[in-house]
Amino acid sequence: MKVKVIRQMFRSVFLNSLRVVRKLCCGYSTHHSVEVLTFILSAIILCLFIIGVYPHRDYEYVSEEDYPHFKIIKAAMEKHKIIPDLHKLFTFYTVQTKFMNGSKSAQMGNELSKEDTQEPPHISYCHDDDAYYTIIMSDLDAPTPGKPYLREWLHWLVVNIPRDNITAGETLGEYIAPVTKNFTGRHRYVITAYRQPGGFRQLRFHEDRLDNKSDVGRVRFSTNTFANDYNYGDPWAMNFWYMSHDNKRWHK
């Protein structure tokens, strides 16, 4: 069933529910009231079922004019298994991620070196002027891609970012650069941006602040759990790169 049909069903159920509520408020009998409440309850259950089964995004009707990079993002996330290893849905936007004063950048699966990523990157992304955002950077392949039992290893966490001005955000986890460890394979490093709920209003976060001198609080971090705890919804934008953790560089 197409998403547009589902939306029409929502609208029909909602309008019928309003009519029934008006009748109830106008003094229907107890017998009719039971029927009315039964109908409303059934409508609510139907809506919850549809919300749970169908994704929030209407990928079938994505416009290339509105989202020119969508196909590239979708293909990269599938090819490199960002879906399902981290996210469940594709993003419409990329997080422009530049290192070394712009001379190096993440490009949806390219390879960067330890030397390239020593300092926090400069980032930008499509944004709304009346919203705050969160940036999360994590390693999906710790300690090895074959046995990532430490997934995710948190490298960077900044919240309450006005628009894409990350320097004005609130840092919950200071940046720790990826460190190469021999013979542990190629690791995927992912940066995800979320649009925070509530419009242009900062959220209050209760996590301990993490400095860059310890891995406490960083091992087995969950981007999805953090996002769910603060009702972020779907990821807004993302980007990722590889780093080889072997005694010699890997090449595609």
TrEMBL record:
Keywords: Membrane, Transmembrane, Transmembrane helix
Signal sequence region: none
TM stretches of this protein: 36-54
Keyword match Membrane: yes
UniProt cross-references to Pfam families, sorted A to Z: PBP (PF01161)
InterPro entries on file: PEBP, PEBP-like_sf, PEBP_euk
Annotated protein name in UniProt: Phosphatidylethanolamine-binding protein
Protein's organism: Bemisia tabaci
